Structure formats: C-alpha cells, structure tokens
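Hey, I'm writing a tutorial for new members on how sequence and structure tokens pair up, and I'd like a real worked example in the thread rather than a made-up one. If someone can provide the structure for the chain below, I'll link this post from the tutorial.
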Amino acid sequence: MNRPKVSIVGAGTVGTAAAHWIASQELADVVLTDVIEGLPQGKALDILQAGPIAGFDVQLTGSNDYAATASSDVVIVTAGVARKPGMTREQLIDINAGIVRSVIEPVVKASPNCVLIMLTNPLDAMAYLAYKVAGLPRSRVIGQSGALDSTRFRTFLAMELGVSVDDIHAMVIGAHTDKDMVPLPRYATVRGIPISHFLSAAKIEAAVARTRRGGAEITELMKASGFTAAGAALCEMVEAILKDKKRVIPCCVHLNGEYGQRDVCAGVPVLLGRGGMEKIIEIPLDAAEQAAFTASVGAIREMLATLKV
C-alpha cells in the first residue's frame, strides 16, 4: 500500500507518543530512529502490537540508520536532551544545538522533499538553526510551539469555565518559553463568544499565567517533561500537512517582515497544508499584545546570539 511516510528522529517519550498518535489515526507509515541500539526497534514493535486491539493497520519500523528515513513526506525531529525540574528550555541550547546539527543534514539528504517539523528545545532557536542548516524553503521548516501551547491554553480555559474543550478556541504566539510566550485572551472564544463574557480579568490572567508554565508544571509534578500532549500536537500538524487540511495552527516559522520581524523564527498563526506552511496569517495586535510579542522575539534573538549559524 502506498501510504505517506513519516520519520521521527528521537525515540524518547515525545517521539514515541507522536508515533503512537500518528499510527492510531492511520495517517502514515512511521519510522522511528535513535542512536540507542534497540530502542527505536522496540518502541516501534510495541506500538505495532497494539494495532490488532486498537484497530489501526500501518507499518512501524525502528532503525539506528538514517537511511531508513529516505523519501519521508514529513520528518519530525524530537532528538535532544529534555529539561529536568528547575531547568528552563533555554538552558538546553548548547547541547541540543550540537544534536540538531548532526541530525538535520543526513535526514534532509535522505528526504529532500520533506516537511521538517522541529520539537527539540529551545524550540525557536532550534527551528532557526534547522532552517539555516537544512537549506529548505522556509515553508518546509516548522517548529511546534503554539500548537502545543494553545492546546494547554484551551484546556485551562475549559477547566475554569466548566465547558467542553471542543467549544474553546484560543491561541498562543511568540516564543516557546515559560515567561516569553504570548497567549492571546482577546482572541479566545467559547463558540464565538469572547471569554471576557464569562471570566473576570483576574481569572483570565490566571489562565494565561498557567499556560506559560504549562510545561514546567508537568515537569515539577512528574520530575520529567510532558510528552502526551506534545505528541498529539505533532500529530495534529502532520494530519494538516498530509491531508492538506489548510488548518490554522500557531507554529514557529521563519519571519521575513511579518509582524515587523525579519530573520528570526517565532510562533505565529499559519495555514498548514500539503506544502507545509502555506501562509503566515497576520492578525491585528493591540499595543499591549504587540509589545509582548516584540519582547518575546527579543528573547529569541538573545538565544540566537549564542548560536553560530
């Protein structure tokens, strides 16, 4: 069967969760790769054995060789060191930059027509590094940032409101960092009704603050990074691309004048389809939102200053 192919570099918790979600929705055949011998093979086999019970039928393979990723439609890079309790994503930049550099060239050589999705932290800096190293059009290098942060924002709003999360629409732009991401409550709605109709300013700000620390909260509770929601957000992005769904999802992409920014990767709402990032959607920001976004991009530029690209 000629199914799409998705390769995931890094068979840790997030990579495995993404593989599980993608397989369970039968979006593509999946290849898991990792430098640890036996790890991707075992993870792939474990997910594959769930197929008869869960009712999905795709091929999952594991490999320690990038050759197995050849001709992938989408390549997801999750490889890197995860943060530990008390660490910020930014503290991972040096070690993960080396890992990303070592990964990008061989996977792009094996799949020159792929859409590359970055997950490795610090996400915005690693997406920029991947864009520069890969030599792909900016439409085909996308970082997962707002896709995950927005689902956390929607979850916290639904919990506060006591309504179905299906009826909550909300998004987060800017940097994928604890203090610099920019949730946009002014654009958050319940079935089109602004959340300010239901919640006080104090409760909205509490949901915004919890969203910014969404990942840190999980890390503090589990003593390890979260992975299930991150894997689901990757799956959402993959589905939008492979099915050409034209979804509007906040993602980290290279900006070339949009939102007044150039030569930086940051989270903004984009149209995701078969070509990857098919359009950057520029929404009006009020003075406070614009200031927050500008400061957020400034924090990303500070991280980039430590990289040699």
